[in-house]
Design brief:
By secondary structure, this protein is an alpha/beta fold. The chain has 10 helices and 12 strands. It has helices at 55-67, 76-94, 114-126, 141-154, 171-178, 199-206, 219-228, 238-241, 243-256, 270-283; strands at residues 2-18, 21-35, 38-44, 101-104, 107-109, 131-135, 160-164, 186-190, 210-212, 233-236, 260-263, 311-314. Strands 5-6-7-8-9-10-11 form a 7-stranded parallel sheet. Strands 1-2-3 form a 3-stranded antiparallel sheet. It has a two-stranded antiparallel ribbon with strand order 4-12. Helix 5 (171-178) packs parallel to helix 6. Bound molecules: magnesium ion.
Length: 315
């Protein structure tokens, strides 16, 4: 097997501000695995503020792996990219092409200024999105309440409003914000606090479904979430959780425990978006996924990872 690696950088149109910090661009390693005339593609793009390895660690691990592809790299982002390339190579070799299909995606609303939030939500609705996700807990609770109220007033009742706190609220802040807004209009809140043991209370007091994202790091954490009954939805990011094989394992665990899944991008480039889109079509074709991130980049990403009418299409 011949593995080649190529670096590229994608720039975000406006900085993405979350409780973990601000992201302005994404450094990406594109992976090509060739064998017997077949090709598989993967991608690795660490975002260390989200608990992943550094770019240099990813690069070193992938370079080592390229010399000995039988044993997957250890760092999670490198591992996920390598696993994705091998899974895609396996799919190519099977010579059964994946059928065309479409999967619904949400619009991710970044930025903090009211005018920008207002414009992004209106654009998303006009562009046919059925769900928008608002980042919260990056500033103060008063501005969170203001932006959530604005999002509720802008989105018609058929558009789902999702929130993502990235663990940035305390339990008191989460309850203060979520009991001040029209909770029935909020479809879910991701990682309201950094401690899943108080998510049950948040669900109970507000009625809002809680989703786990950053806490889905390893099997032990996932088992704990299930035991606590902390989350009603798992937001699975294939590009950090181990690629397609690990995603399938977590999806099966979720199904067994009556937990919904949403497949999500990690502000990924085109190859990882494609991997995630195909997993969304395979594992939860009726769900609205977190894969509408291509328009956030300055660079034009390929058509098949660009949301059209709020959907990604496999051609
Ligand atoms: Mg999240």
């Amino acid at each position: 097997m011949l593995i080649t690696l190529k670096n590229r950088t994608l720039r975000l149109r406006s900085p993405m501000v979350t409780a973990h910090g601000t992201t302005t661009d994404r450094r990406i390693i594109e992976i090509t695995a060739k064998q017997d005339g077949f090709v598989g593609y993967g991608e690795a793009a660490p975002l260390p503020s989200f608990g992943a390895e550094t770019f240099e660690e990813t690069q070193t691990a992938l370079t080592e792996w390229s010399k000995n592809p039988d044993s997957l790299p250890d760092p999670p982002v490198a591992r996920s990219g390598a696993a994705a390339a091998l899974d895609h190579l396996h799919q190519s070799k099977s010579q059964t092409p994946l059928q065309p299909g479409a999967v619904a995606v949400q619009a991710l609303i970044g930025g903090l200024e009211t005018a920008s939030v207002e414009r992004q939500i209106s654009d998303a609705i006009n562009d046919g999105y059925r769900a928008v996700k608002l980042k919260v807990a990056a500033t103060d609770t008063a501005s969170d309440i203001e932006r959530i109220d604005l999002a509720i007033s802008l989105s018609e009742s058929q558009v789902l409003l999702r929130l993502d706190a990235n663990g940035g609220w305390t339990k008191r802040q989460a309850l203060a914000v979520l009991t001040s807004v029209e909770a029935s209009r909020i479809a879910l809140v991701e990682e309201p606090t950094s401690d899943p043991s108080n998510w049950g209370k948040i669900k109970e007091e507000t009625g809002i479904r809680v989703a786990a994202d950053e806490h889905l790091t390893d099997r032990q954490q996932i088992d704990r979430l299930i035991e606590l009954e902390a989350a009603q939805t798992f937001v699975i990011k294939p590009s950090i959780l181990g690629g397609p094989p690990a995603t399938r394992v977590i999806a099966a665990l979720a199904a067994t425990n009556d937990i919904d899944i949403v497949i999500s991008s990690f502000l990924d480039g085109p190859i990882a978006l494609r991997t995630a889109r195909d997993l969304a079509l395979e594992l939860a074709p009726e769900q609205i996924h977190g894969l509408g991130t291509a328009p956030l980049f300055v660079e034009d990403l390929p058509q098949d990872v660009q949301p059209i009418n709020g959907h990604l299409h496999r051609l």
